[in-house]
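[agent] plan:
  1. take the single chain provided in the ticket
  2. run structure prediction with default settings
  3. attach structure tokens to the ticket
  4. add a short note for the reviewer (M.T.)
[agent] executing step 1
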Amino acid sequence: MIKVGDQLPNATLMEFHEVEGGGCSLGPNPVDVVAASAGKTIALFALPGAFTPTCSAKHVPGYVENHAAFMAAGVDEIWCVSVNDAFVMGAWARDQKTGDKVRMLADGSAVFAQATGLTLDLTAKGMGLRSNRYSMLIKNGTVVALNVEGPGKFEVSDAATLLTQAKA
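[agent] step 2 finished; step 3 output follows
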């Protein structure tokens, strides 16, 4: 499992764009995790699935609401990662009104989740292999804080906890 002091894994996530611009074409676009985090401070949070109850009611809204505070604490970008396809993440971004506050990144084949060792097997619930719920603060590609939730919990990966760590 990834830990504080480790580099982010070499993986590609996908991001859906509804408008062409800024070097991004319409539709899904690849995001090289290593390149996209280079020289930046990233507040990353991951969760089991788009449109799921806790993720939609608590996890994403907390980061959207605290966007300005994260930026004031020196965070360059907020990333939400989930084992869903880019189209689902794009629809969820619209639903959650993330705008330019939270990048909704798809880990469609769970490559990133597996590379971090932070997977959650929800096969028995019909959801297959997913990402565990966690948050991490990343500086120049290195994990400087990591908050992994216990099974069925939402206690340490919330925006308030990671924001406190970003301010430290």
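[agent] step 4 note for reviewer: The helical segments are 33-37, 53-65, 67-72, 86-96, 111-116, 159-167.
[agent] ticket updated
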